């Protein structure tokens, strides 16, 4: 049990870190009727190839005796001027197994022995892909294996990754090898393996996928994958972090930037305005930190091992964008709206994007246009229009303006555009947005209709209250006046009575 766990940990380490390890024996894949190559030989005096069996090794060919007959079913070409390897031609399924190649100098000096394990599949790709057969994949996910047939009971998938041109097993569904980081997903019904969050891989890498039924390999597929550069957009004076993680090159990585080479500094205290990289010799984090970016930071960045040509871990393209103020647009049901970038700068359009964001939901790319340069360098793929906008969005030439028809309340939100242009010196980026606000249809239940009516009613109510108060105050004033007049009349009568009394006396 402990041995199995150790092996599982070892294979996962190979997958996640890409450790430069050489398995023994070296694995070779072939297809029925194809050919397989064993080894690479130079300055050869004598080469010998054996097939390894439990009951004894079988000599297949001794190149110092080219006229000697070969065992039945074998057609082997020795290394020479045309080939530097043993070539096993017209492969059969029964030729799967272990082989040993020996290199001799003279008759008594064996200078090299190499072990091989040949796996012959019923069909599949004949040769490994070359440089021009690259498939670009994004860094967030990629389909690594895909077969046309569905796997049944007793079937399994294997995934190999090439390290120094040698395949290492990183996934075997038959042995329940599971990735604890959940980066590998496989579906046996669809015969597909998907990797998410591709990291710690070199910029380019080869993989082989095998589909098995029982102990027989049914099909083999090869892929040569290249990670598309990660595109980062930022604004002036922002602090930007460009990620790079790897366990392959402790303390050896550097960043190539538009402003020069950035290497690990022993003193990790830096002036606030200076670009620097993290020392990932312990953590594996070699991210580049750019405080207060400016337009001079626009360009390509490479996290790479400067001592080994081609060992690029991460490529990033950074754009520093000029941001325009948002424009508010009111709309009603079934109306149309035209949104225009209005970028009048001189230069040629390279890349235009339009995004839609509803509330707190993330931005969703709805349409984009790009030229061949951007498509080749960044590996952009066509975007699928969201279902709710299908048939309602029309874009102008190179998507500099967008028209959305038959608007509904669901179309509310922020529409962000981003324009990448090239002038004579560099690429420039502009960004702006439209905030679409739904105002509802007109009618008795419409807020647009009800608001004035409610306002008038409120004014009428206020006027009525004022009128009532004025009437009440006037009534009170009239009552008080009459009361004072009555009081004055009573006093006069009293005065007359006093005078009458005095006369009597």
TrEMBL record:
It comes from Coilia grayii (Gray's grenadier anchovy). Gene3D superfamilies: Immunoglobulins. Residues 1-21 form the signal peptide. Keywords: Disulfide bond, Glycoprotein, Immunoglobulin domain, Membrane, Signal, Transmembrane, Transmembrane helix. Residues 490-505 have a biased composition (Acidic residues). Residues 229-304 form the Ig-like domain. PANTHER family: CARCINOEMBRYONIC ANTIGEN-RELATED CELL ADHESION MOLECULE 8, IMMUNOGLOBULIN SUBTYPE DOMAIN-CONTAINING PROTEIN. It comes from the Eukaryota. The chain crosses the membrane at residues 447-468. CDD domains: Ig. This is Ig-like domain-containing protein. Coiled coil: none annotated. Residues 476-505 are annotated as: Disordered. Residues 477-489 have a biased composition (Polar residues).
């Amino acid at each position: 049990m402990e041995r199995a766990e150790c092996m599982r940990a070892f294979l996962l380490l190979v997958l996640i870190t890409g450790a430069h390890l050489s398995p023994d024996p070296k694995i070779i894949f072939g297809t029925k009727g194809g050919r397989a190559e064993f080894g690479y030989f130079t300055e050869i005096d004598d080469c010998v190839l054996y097939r390894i069996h439990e009951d004894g090794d079988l000599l297949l060919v001794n190149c110092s005796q080219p006229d000697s007959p070969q065992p039945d079913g074998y057609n082997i070409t020795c290394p020479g001027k045309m080939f530097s390897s043993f070539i096993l031609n017209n492969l059969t399924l029964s030729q799967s197994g272990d082989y040993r190649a020996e290199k001799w100098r003279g008759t008594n000096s064996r200078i090299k022995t190499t072990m091989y394990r040949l796996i012959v599949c019923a069909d599949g790709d004949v040769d490994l892909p070359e440089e021009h057969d690259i498939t670009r994949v994004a860094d967030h996910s990629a389909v690594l294996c895909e077969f046309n047939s569905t796997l049944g009971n007793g079937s399994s998938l294997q995934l190999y990754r090439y390290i120094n041109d040698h395949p290492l097993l990183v996934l075997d569904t038959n042995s329940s090898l599971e990735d604890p980081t959940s980066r590998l997903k496989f579906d046996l019904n669809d015969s597909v393996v998907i990797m998410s969050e591709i990291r710690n891989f070199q910029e380019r890498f080869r993989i082989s996928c095998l589909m098995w039924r029982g102990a027989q390999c049914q099909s083999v597929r090869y892929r040569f994958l290249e990670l598309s550069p990660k595109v980062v957009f930022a604004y002036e004076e922002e602090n930007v972090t460009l990620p790079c993680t790897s366990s392959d090159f402790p303390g050896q990585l550097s960043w190539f930037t538009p402003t020069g080479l950035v290497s690990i500094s022993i003193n990790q205290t830096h002036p606030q305005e200076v670009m620097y990289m993290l020392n990932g010799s312990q953590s594996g984090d070699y991210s580049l930190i750019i405080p207060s970016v400016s337009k001079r930071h626009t360009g390509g960045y490479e996290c790479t091992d400067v001592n080994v040509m081609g060992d690029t871990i991460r490529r990033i393209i950074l754009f520093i964008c000029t941001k325009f103020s948002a424009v508010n647009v009111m709309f009603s049901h079934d109306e149309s709206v035209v949104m225009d970038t209005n970028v009048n700068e001189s230069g040629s359009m390279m890349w235009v994007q339009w995004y839609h964001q509803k509330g707190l939901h993330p931005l969703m790319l709805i349409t984009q246009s790009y030229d061949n340069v951007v498509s080749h360098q960044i590996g952009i793929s066509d975007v699928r229009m969201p279902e709710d906008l299908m048939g309602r969005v029309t874009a102008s030439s190179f998507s500099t303006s967008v028209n959305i028809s038959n608007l509904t309340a669901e179309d509310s939100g922020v529409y962000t555009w981003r324009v990448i242009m090239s002038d004579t010196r560099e690429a420039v980026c502009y960004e702006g947005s439209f905030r679409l606000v739904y105002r509802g249809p007109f009618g008795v239940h419409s807020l647009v209709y009800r608001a004035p009516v409610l306002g008038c009613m409120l004014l009428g109510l206020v006027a009525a209250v004022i009128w009532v108060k004025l009437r009440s105050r006037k009534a009170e004033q009239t009552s008080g006046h009459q009361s004072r007049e009555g009081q004055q009349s009573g006093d006069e009568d009293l005065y007359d009575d006093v005078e009458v009394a005095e006369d009597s006396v």
